[in-house]
Design brief:
The complex is a heterodimer of chains A (about 110) and B (about 600). Chain A is mostly helical and about 110 residues long. Chain A has a single domain, classed as Alpha-helical ferredoxin (Fumarate Reductase Iron-sulfur Protein, Chain B, domain 2, Orthogonal Bundle), CATH 1.10.1060.10. Chain A is about 45% helix and about 0% strand. Chain A is built from 6 helices and no strands. Chain A is globular and about 50 Å long. Chain B has a 4-stranded parallel beta sheet. A 4-stranded parallel beta sheet of chain B has the order 6-5-7-8, sandwiched between helices. Chain B has helices spanning about 5-30, 35-45, 45-60, 65-70, 70-95, 105-110, 110-115, 125-150, 165-195, 200-210, 215-235, 245-255, 265-275, 280-285, 285-290, 300-305, 310-315, 325, 335-340, 370-375, 380-390, 410, 415-435, 445-450, 460-470, 490-495, 500-505, 535-550, 565-575, 580-590, 600-610; strands at about 365-370, 395, 435-440, 460, 485, 510, 560, 580. Chain B is mainly alpha-helical. Chain B folds into 4 domains: about 5-245; about 280-340, no CATH class; about 365-470 and about 595-610, Rossmann fold (3-Layer(aba) Sandwich); about 475-590, Rossmann fold (3-Layer(aba) Sandwich), CATH 3.40.50. Helices cover about 60% and strands about 5% of the residues of chain B. Classes of the chains: A mainly alpha (about 110), B mainly alpha (about 600). The interface between A and B is medium-sized, with 25 and 34 residues.
Chain lengths: ~110, ~600
């Protein structure tokens, strides 16, 4: 590695090559729209739960893609399944179904 | 006593089916909850029993609801049920009028023509009995023939698709189909040999099959008839035909006030058995008509639930629009059963929404709740509030800064634990406002508030409240010549039985133009349903476009709806016709001058108490 004279803290490095993509592929297999997300954040902007707490579907997808399974599963419980995000999504991501899949993963992956 | 060994298959079958039915009825009644047994017992000797008997006859024998759907289909069901019933009743009368021994076994009336060839002891009744028996046999066989044609070309009987049956149903169905042709054969052979029967069997025996070896056919024909009957009776309890005894019990229990609970119960078992899988729900379902998903309809869902467990795909693929409930000739609460089945799979914990706490809004007489979908269509909220202002309503907007979801979307997915938490939070919020009335723009919320919140104040959909305001002259509307079609939202029309108020309201300001049969409780779903999570955006769009095409005509200026979700779904699916909420149309045609008179408070009290 090139020595720049400074380096990121070890703890802050997220090595995507070593991410646990189990949940990501498990969801993508069951709902292919999961892969269509462009992280535009429309879902977050309209989110009902997001009005009251720090919750974001976009972040949820990020966490899953980064392999932070436990975090994603814990976060997903905040969703009220109201469906506004599904209606505003410009990429037609089936958000409610994906949240339900993450909730199901809770039982499947036992984290 | 007359006897011949060929009656054995029939007798065994009859004994078996009778014991089974009596056993199951007793088992079900014993397994009803204490409270249900109590209300049944209390109401047993009342008009409800007479009403139940009447309905059993109208539905069980004449199939009135199917007649309303399609005359020929109704005739098919009626001819089989009523025709066979009359054959049994008349056969019994005939054999009892005929001089007989003290023992009159059950098979005697059924095979009366075999045992008695000379009916002259019936004297003046001979003619009428033989005629009626032939007439009803002809009626039944016409039904069997229609049923047969229905399997080949169902459209003749008004059905696009018929149910795909499992093996046991096919066996039962085939034996049922064989019963009547075999009876005609047996009676015609007898008529050929002994000149019995009347215009139908006598004619066949004497003029059509007279040169066949009737002597050799005589016993085989009666044996075959008896075997077909026996086979049908033995398969009945395990096949779709269990609906015959179950439906009668269901009609009685329903009349006494027993209904589906928040979880599966004995009543559910009775309903599952009462489903005849006639397949009327398949054509009613928009997943079938628009998307060709024809394997998840109630006929299949209830069947799988009766025999084992429906799989996830079967359980979840449903928009919960309740069109099937409206169409079901047996009146099974399919959507409630499906919701309860979904409840078996809870995905949330009791602490899911701990982050929600302490919100308050100013106190007022009327609490206005826009709901999530309301917030997604700000123009609806704006218009409603404009109307409230114009009428001088003392309101408080209890989800001005974003709502806590009412819980209905979770409820539709069976997530009762999660929904309960939202219900508690919203309940506290509503109580804190001290409101005497709750108004919501969203029928989904309105239904949840009415059915699951147990609020002690009335809940009105905005179309109802606005109509009250217009009728009490607090809102004045201009008449315009716009042609408006109205779309009934599922939760409003079928969920809350509100179909007239929006129409009355619209006709006060625009030309309400309606076409087709898909209105009111038979309305189509917009496709945006929150009940299904596993249908894609593209599929939803297909449903939305089909629905818009059905309810609008070339000269329709605006398609009005009373649900923000329907509006949003229609708007994003097509741009051929403008979609507006009722509140928007009213707000655009408002004739009120702002702040007309200050005596609003007293008038408002009238509305609330009304």
């Amino acid at each position: 590695m090139v020595n720049f004279g400074f380096a990121p803290l070890e703890i802050k490095i997220h090595d995507l090559d070593k991410s646990n993509l189990q949940l990501s592929s498990w969801i993508a297999e069951r709902d292919e729209t999961f892969t269509q997300c462009i992280a535009c954040g429309c879902c977050t902007a309209t989110c009902t739960a997001g009005k009251f707490t720090k919750f974001s579907f976009r972040e949820l997808c990020h966490s899953i893609r980064r392999g932070e399974i436990a975090k994603a599963i814990a976060e997903s419980e905040k969703c009220m399944l109201c469906g506004k995000c599904t209606l505003v999504c410009p990429r037609n991501v089936n958000t409610r179904n994906i949240v339900k899949l993450i909730r199901k993963a809770n039982q499947k992956f036992k984290v | 006593m007359k006897y011949h060994p060929f009656v054995i298959p029939f007798s065994i079958g009859l004994a078996f089916v009778m014991l089974y039915i009596v056993g199951m009825w007793a088992y079900w009644i014993i397994r009803l909850s204490r409270r249900e047994q109590k209300i049944v017992w209390k109401r047993l000797f009342s008009f409800r029993t007479i009403a139940a008997i009447w309905e059993s006859m109208m539905e069980g024998l004449f199939h009135r609801k199917i007649f309303r759907k399609h005359a020929l289909l109704g005739y098919m069901h009626m001819s089989l049920a009523f025709g066979w019933f009359m054959l049994i009743v008349l056969g019994n009368f005939e054999s009892r009028l005929y001089p007989h021994s003290n023992i009159n076994p059950p098979y005697y009336p059924i095979f009366f023509e075999f045992f008695r060839h000379d009916l002259s002891p019936l004297r003046e009744y001979e003619e009428i009995f033989t005629f009626l028996m032939d007439f009803f046999l002809l009626l039944v066989i016409s039904g069997v023939m229609l049923a047969f044609f229905k399997r080949i070309k169902s459209r003749i009987l008004g059905m696009r698709r018929t149910t795909k049956h499992i093996r046991i149903d096919r066996i039962a169905l085939t034996s049922l189909w064989f019963i009547f042709p075999l009876r005609i054969l047996a009676e015609s052979v007898t008529a050929g040999l002994y000149n019995t029967g009347h215009f139908f069997t006598n004619f066949l025996g004497q003029n059509v099959i007279y040169n066949l070896p009737l002597d050799q056919l005589y016993y085989p024909a009666w044996w075959a008839y008896s075997i077909a009957l026996g086979l049908f009776f033995v398969t009945l309890p395990f096949s779709r035909y269990m609906h015959i005894p179950s439906e009668i019990l269901l009609i009685f229990l329903r009349k006494y006030g027993v209904k589906e609970k928040e979880h599966h119960s004995t009543f559910t078992k009775i309903e599952l058995n009462a489903c005849s899988r006639c397949g009327i729900c398949i054509d009613t379902c928009q997943l079938s008509t628009n998307l060709n998903i024809s394997n998840t309809q109630p006929a299949y869902f209830l069947r799988d639930l009766r025999y084992s467990q429906p799989n996830e795909q079967l359980r979840e693929t449903c928009m919960m629009c309740m069109r099937c409930v409206e169409a079901c000739p047996v009146g099974i609460e399919v959507v409630k059963i499906r919701e309860n089945e979904r409840k078996e799979h809870q995905l949330y914990s009791e602490n899911s929404y701990n982050y929600l706490n302490g919100y308050s809004y100013p106190k007022a007489k009327v609490a206005f709740f826009a709901g999530c979908m309301g917030h997604l269509t700000p123009s609806v909220i704006k218009s409603t509030l404009k109307l409230f202002e114009a009428a001088g309503v003392d309101y408080t907007f209890i989800d001005k800064d974003g709502s806590i979801c009412c819980g209905r979307p979770l409820q539709l997915g069976g997530q009762a634990i999660a929904a309960k938490q939202l219900i508690d939070k919203n309940n506290a919020l509503i109580h804190a406002t001290g409101a005497e009335l709750l108004v919501t723009t969203c029928p989904i919320c309105a239904r949840e508030f009415r059915h699951n919140y147990h609020l002690n104040i009335p809940v009105l959909h905005h179309s109802q409240y606005l109509l009250e305001l217009v009728n009490s002259n607090r809102l004045k509307l201009k008449k315009t010549d716009l042609n408006v079609a109205y779309h009934d939202p599922c939760e409003l029309s079928r969920g809350l039985s509100i179909t007239e108020e929006p129409r009355e309201l619209l006709s006060k300001t625009v030309n309400l133009v309606e076409s087709g049969k898909q209105i009111g409780k038979n309305s189509l779903c917009c496709g945006g349903s929150l009940g299904a999570t596993n249908i894609s955006a593209e599929q939803r769009r297909t449903i939305a476009v089909a629905t818009v095409n059905q309810i609008t005509q070339a000269d329709t200026n605006i398609l009005a709806t009373a649900c923000p979700l329907c509006k949003k779904t229609f708007c994003s699916a097509q741009d051929t016709v403008a979609i507006q909420d009722i509140a928007e149309i009213l707000a655009n045609n408002l004739a009120n001058i702002k702040n007309q008179n200050p005596t609003k408070k007293s008038a408002e009290r009238e509305v609330i108490t009304a």
